[in-house]
Amino acid sequence: MGKVISGITTSLDGYITAAGADGMNRARAGATLPRLAAEAGQVDDYERLAEALDRLANGFPRTDSGLELKLLRKMLTPDEAAIACVMTSTPEPVAWIAERAERPVHETGQILKALARREVVLVSSTPGSRGFRLAPFVVGSYEGHILNGADAEFARLSEEYFRIAGAVMMGTKPSLQRTLPARAAVKSEWVLPYDDVRQVLMGANSFVIGDCVCRIQQELVESRRCDFPIKACLWFSNSPAHEEGATTREEALAFLDGIEKTGLVHTVSNVAEGVGFVCNCCGCCCGLLRGINEWGIDDSVAQANYYAEIDRETCTGCAVCLGRCQVGAISESDGTYEVDRARCIGCGLCVTGCGDGAATLRRKPPEEIVIPPRNFADWEAQRLANRGLA
Q1: Fewest beta carbons less than 10 Å away: which of 66, 182, 345, 354?
Q2: 372: cis peptide before it, omega within 30°?
Q3: Quick one: how far is CA 204 from the chain centroid?
Q4: pLDDT digit string (tens) for 359-371?
Q5: Residue at 335 is within a domain
Q6: Who contacts 48 (Cβ-Cβ below 8 Å, separation ≥6)?
Q7: pLDDT in tens, 171-193
């Protein structure tokens, strides 16, 4: 799964404009209701935080066993939970958040800065103002916690949580992330602009190659089954290239080409504009692909607008494609191989690995093309509506 970085924070600036003052006022009024419930002794701050997270578009499904509360107690101190639980999806000034939490403004600001460093909250800056909003659990604070030194118990709890609640979180439309086809598998004259990984990167100035959250989590629970690299994900933004370990655009593209040869699937945020990362996923560690392979969530990641075909007359039965398919969409039949189109996510890895030229990637017909939401504000609005929360 992805990681929240400055690319997503930048997209929040547009969200503030879309929400406007009315949205902020609604957030201020609505967030007082859980506080009144807490004062009546009905829920504690971790319960209220779980409720606040589940009101976000991404969702944070509750479980009978309370696994989600155990996760939150591992992630936040009581003082941090008291601040985070009064926050909403709308970026707000520190003073508003402090007022609702009934905490001093300076103390609230210090806690918010600490939470932002761990990606529990997102920061949005515009000329003359700064706002804080609650980050989703996935994609958001979960990834931040793993990358900031989560222990084996947290990894184990999250593994159990996704097994129980993943179908609700990953099965809601629009999907959390979408598949991008491998660069070498598509033709520039027919690939859609938002599906072209090169075009996705062209608007960015800063690029950082970082660790895969999912493989780290699987190592922590001692269940990792592959030898794909840990350092396999790319984060980027339009901020100046000043981050430690930053790389150039050319190096980033070369890195992605190497990842394709390795046999990993590109996935990005399920939006056309404002993408800030490329996850490079395997079917045994990636939570989204495991949704397909292990948890029966057919659309846990949005399919690309392409599908693979194998010419059985040309296929020599070498089985390279079988090993490269990360979602089990290829099977053997009478000495050659064929693609289950319904299961194929259009990543193109079978195409880039086929030395015989038998595998090809084709663009879906117009009636099957799915255009992703334009930006994060549209994505959130669609997802909230589909969850009955709009």
Answers
A1: 66
A2: no
A3: 18
A4: 999 999 999 999 9
A5: yes
A6: 34, 35, 37, 38, 85, 86
A7: 999 999 999 999 999 988 789 99
Q: Assess whether 227 and 104 both reside in one domain.
A: no
Q: Are residues 132 and 196 in the same domain?
A: no
| Residue 357 C-alpha from the chain's centroid | 33
SS3 state at 92: strand
Q: Which of 231, 359, 345, 235 is nearest to 283 (CA)?
A: 345
Q: Tokens 């003073």 label which residue?
A: 95
Mean pLDDT of 191-197: 93
User: Residue by residue, what is the 3-state secondary structure of 334-385?
Assistant: CCEEEECCCCCCCCCHHHHHCCCCCEEEEECCHHHCCCCCCCHHHHHHHHHH
Query: Which distant-in-sequence residues (6+ apart) come within 8 Å of 320 by Cβ?
Result: 350, 353, 354, 355
1 within some domain? no
Q: How many CB atoms lie within 10 A of CB 48?
A: 22
Can you give the CATH number for the domain in which 208 is found? 3.30.70.20
The parent domain of residue 25 ranges over 6-137
328 and 236 within one domain:
yes
229 and 121 in one domain?
no
pLDDT-based confidence at residue 125 (cuts at 50, 70, 90): confident
Residues 98 and 195 in one domain: no
CB 350 within 8 A of CB 141: no
Instruction: Tell me, yes or no, whether 276 and 364 share the same domain.
Output: yes
Which stretches within 31-138 are classed as H helix?
32-39, 45-55, 67-75, 78-84, 94-101, 105-117
Question: Do 184 and 305 share a structural domain?
Answer: yes
Mean pLDDT of the region 34-56: 77
Domain total in the chain: 2
The answer to whether residues 240 and 170 touch, using CB atoms and an 8 Å cutoff, is no
